[in-house]
Amino acid sequence: MTVNQILNAKGKNVYSVNSTRTVYEALKVMGEKNIGAILIIDGSELKGILSERDYARKIVLKDKSSKETLVDEIMESTVFTVKLSDNLEDCMELMSTKRIRHLPVLEEGIVVGIISISDVVKAIIELQKDTINHLNSYISQ
């Protein structure tokens, strides 16, 4: 299974803010869209990613103000990405080794989607169900 197949099933919505927004504004979008991380995009260039974990560790625990702190002060600027053609196993390995939960999907330098660890797990479960059904069908014949 490829990243493209996952995005076709879940949708290719991309939510983002630019790096000069406040953390509060980014959190507001995250809350409205019910997402755990938001991409930081200036123009069409991916600059970083901001997660709920970043907020908890870099704002709440450091007693900063989300209404005064800019996104670019706490965002993760090292962003690991995948392509539409990448397979599920590669995504899972990258997420596991880098200990990340979200992977922006880029094609020709443009963000075309994002997948989360939950998207990958759901896809694996579906693949396993298909394999089990196929094996059961084979055994029953």
From TrEMBL:
The keyword Isomerase is assigned to this record: no
Pfam families found in the cross-reference section: CBS (PF00571)
CDD domains linked to this entry: CBS_pair_bac_euk
Claim: Zinc is one of the keywords in the record: no
Residue ranges that the Swiss-Prot or TrEMBL entry lists as coiled coil: none
PANTHER family: CBS DOMAIN-CONTAINING PROTEIN (PTHR43080:SF2), CBS DOMAIN-CONTAINING PROTEIN CBSX3, MITOCHONDRIAL (PTHR43080)
Protein name: CBS domain-containing protein
